Amino acid sequence: MTATWRDVARKDFEDAVRSRLLWGLIAVFVAFLVMSLLSAEQLFPEPVTVDAALALSGVAMLAQLFVPGIALAVGYMAVVGERRSGSLRVLLSYPFSRGEIVVGKLAGRLLVTGAALLIGFAAASGLVVALYGVPDVTTFAGFVATGVLLGLTFTALAVGGSAAASTQGRARTLTIGSFVGMVFFWKPVVVGTYYAVTGSLPGIQAEPWYFLLKRLNPLEAYRVVVGAVLDERVDAVPEFPLEDVPATVSPETLELSNRLAGAVPFYLADWFSVVVLLAWGIVPVLAGYRLFEGADLG
Question: Does pTM top 0.70 for this prediction?
């Protein structure tokens, strides 16, 4: 029987189950969802009536940090861990190509992340109903789908970094370092670029390319998509008040259609943020594979 990437994926997933990694992730994720839902009212600056959609927007605000953390933990040792332990040579002694190993590891880690998130969301759905009533089914399904997409995106990013790196330390730097950059440095760099080009900080109205640069951050893309699904604003964590926008401005004023002088271009439509998330999942894997394909494993 010919060995394929499916065999690598199956073994990778079964190893995660046997090592209790999957069950540990499920337990941690369920605990996160429970704490987020129970404290949803405290996540908003002013007293508001919290319904299911608003509560889920609070969960999404925290999930933009927590879900990528889970995904990076799942994926960053996928390939480099085999190199470090020497088992990669054993795998390559079978009729696996390096590409099949990367694809198999990617599929296995995506299964681990996806299963953990889906089971966690399913377990927490009862708490949503108990605390905030029955949410709109389509809205809740969209919320779950965007959360899973975020997790899968960062899992793929981590697997790509793992394939590209020759040591565990480099894999950690590539994956965790990129995430830290997205959280803390992306917006300051984009605002700084806008100031360098235009001579002023972005105000209530700004150039379309400024919003595009912001939305190329997968975390911002997630906020756009899940905000559209819930019809609620999802803020960044942490939020950097770098724009020249009064603190008292209403949320309606900050809607994208009010911040552009003309029509909203296609690359700022909500659906395009899904494309951004998919690109962040695909491009790092392809780049990691190219580096892994040419790497000396000796």
Answer: yes
